Every structure is written in C-alpha cells, then in structure tokens.
Amino acid sequence: MAVLLSTHPRFADHRTGTLHPERPARLEAVLAGARAARLGDDLLRVTPRMATRAELGLVHEQRLVDAIEAFCGAGGGHLDADTTASAGSFAAAALAVGAGLDAIERLDRGEGDAAFCAVRPPGHHATPQRAMGFCLLNSVAVAAATLAARGERVLVVDYDAHHGNGTQAAFESDPRVVYVSMHQFPLYPGTGAIDDVGEGPGRGATVNVPFPPGTTGDVYLAALDEVVAPVAEEQRPTWLLLSAGFDLHRDDPLTGLGLTAGDVGLLTSRLLALVPRRRCVAFLEGGYDLAAVANCTTACLVAMAGGRDGDYERLRESEPCSSGGPGRAVVTAVAAQRRHHA
C-alpha cells in the first residue's frame, strides 16, 4: 500500500520559543522516523496546500481566524500560558489544515492508499472559538467537517494522551461525525470523562475512554475490540481520521501512559481495518520525546503501508508491545455504557 506523507518546510516557521516542548525538532524526528521505515516507493512525499477561509469556517468562528491572523501578523507572543505563536504561525496552521484537505483530495484521485500529515502546530485542542493547548486551528476537525458535508460517515479516533476537547466541541451535537478519544485522565485539559457522550442529536456520537496513568497497549487493544469496533459496526464509517498523538509513548515527558512504538503500529493497523483502502488520513498531534516520536512514526507508517512480516518483526525487536498496566475496568465501564444506551 502506498502512503502519502504530507509535510512542508513552512511548518518550521511556527516558532514557540527555546524551551517550548512543541518545537520544530518534532518534525525533524518525524522525518527521521519516515526514513527508518524503509518503505521505498511505498512512501510518497507530497506538498500540501493552504486551507481557504471558507474551509476554516466549517469549524472555526471567523472572529477567531481573524484574531489569530492579526496576532501573528503583529509578531505573535503568548495566546495563553501554554500556547504561543510567531509571525509565521498563522500560515503554518492554515497549511496544516490544508494538508488534511489535500490528502483527502489525493486519496479521492487514487494517488495513494492512506495518508499521514506531518504537520505543526497540532490541532485537536483548538475549539471553534478558541486556540489553546499548543493548538491554533483544528486540522482533523476541518477535515471531518468537509467529509461530513459531502455525505460521508466519519469516524475520528484520537489516541493522543491528551483529550481532544476541540474536536469534541466541534461535533458534540453533530451525529454525522463519531469522535472516539482514548486518553490519560486526569490530564490537561481535564475533559473527556466517561459520561461525556455528546449532546442533543449528537448524543452517543462522542465516546471517551479515560485511562489511568500507566495504561499499556494490551488495554488499548481491549478498547478497540470492546468499544471502537462495535462503534464502527454501528456507524459503518466511510472515512477514518486519526489524531495520532505520539505522547502516549512511555518516554513522553508530559504524560504518564505506558505504551511503546510497537503498540502504535498494532493500534494503527487494527484501526485501518475499519474502513476501505484510500479512506484514512492520520494527523500528527502530540509527542514530545524526539526518539519516541521517530520510533512511533516508523511504526505508524509501516502499519499504514500494510506492514510486511519483516517490518513488524524489526519493530517488535526494538520496542515490544506493552502489557500488564491498569485501565481494564475503564474499558468494561465504557462498553457497558454503550450497551445501555444502544
């Protein structure tokens, strides 16, 4: 399977400051991981386009877009305690959103079988009204809204260690998009409880699986079997969008989960099986240990390319899948809740 790798040098123009964990070196680690995947002609690097104002407006209020552009145009600074921007940040964020839209267009044309958007800034904390949590504009949410507008059934799975409150906020009343988040709890931004299931016509289309620190890959696989797969069976998604946050890795300095790159490969492979070929786009979200980001990128891309036995064996030797951590009771509780509301 051919994987499109969408990235651009302008993502480095989003400058966050010397000590900020969301830094340009993260993309350098992603590209190192892409090289280590050794996919050859099965990895096709493509150049994204900018998102238009109309496309951003599918999710974000116009006043937010205008405010971020003006703030960056004035040189940037701190939007909040965690979120900074520079002169090049608005263009980078609009290009990150455009990468997802361009990837969808390319998959529609049959240029590849799946796509990975190596972008920054990340996006899943950005709400329709607010930039926060290192995020300015929500790439995965705009992609989901674009697909839903043309009649697709969209499943967004977010395995970033932080809950994607921005993506949830964009669709919590919208049954066209099912949002599933597997995240550490408690952790920033403090949202994503089990009983947070959406509102109004979107009730039941939001699924949160809040795991305790130390949760390992075997528990995530149980969540796929007992929660995500039944959700997909109900929804029959035509597209899968992944918020691929590599801060679920056990070495990440900002989080406390217990997963490895081997787990990332297996999770990604299992998720891809939920939709037909040419109907999956992954977006880089978090991940702040550079070696872990590189290793998780390798695993994710190998899985997206279909994974040959030798590839998986190489990954398992370097970082075996994890097991034995807590969190199994969370899976049981979420699965029971889904059955109760079915």
Task: Describe what you observe in this structure.
- The chain has 342 residues and is an alpha/beta fold.
- It has a single domain (3-341), classed as 3-Layer(aba) Sandwich (Arginase, Chain A), CATH 3.40.800.
- Helix content is 40%, strand content 14%.
- The chain has eleven helices and ten strands.
- It has helices spanning 25-36, 53-56, 62-73, 89-108, 139-149, 165-171, 217-235, 261-272, 290-304, 309-318, 328-341, and strands at residues 3-6, 43-46, 76-78, 84-86, 114-117, 154-158, 177-184, 206-211, 239-244, 280-284.
- The strands form two sheets. It has an eight-stranded parallel sheet with strand order 2-1-5-10-9-6-7-8, sandwiched between helices.
- The radius of gyration is 18 Å and the shape is globular.
- The chain starts with a strand and ends with a helix.
Give a short summary of the structure.
The protein is an alpha/beta fold.
Question: Average pLDDT, to the nearest integer?
Answer: 96
Distance between the termini: 36 Å
Computed structural class: alpha/beta
SSE sequence, one letter per element: EHEHHEEHEHEHEEHEHEHHH
Q: What is the count of DSSP helices, taking H or I runs of 4+ residues?
A: 11
Low-confidence stretches: none
- Give the name of the CATH architecture: 3-Layer(aba) Sandwich
How many strand elements? 10
Radius of gyration: 18 Å
The biggest sheet, with number of strands, parallel, antiparallel or mixed sense and barrel status, is: 8 strands, parallel
Query: Considering DSSP H and I runs of 4 or more, what fraction of the residues is helical?
Result: 25-40%
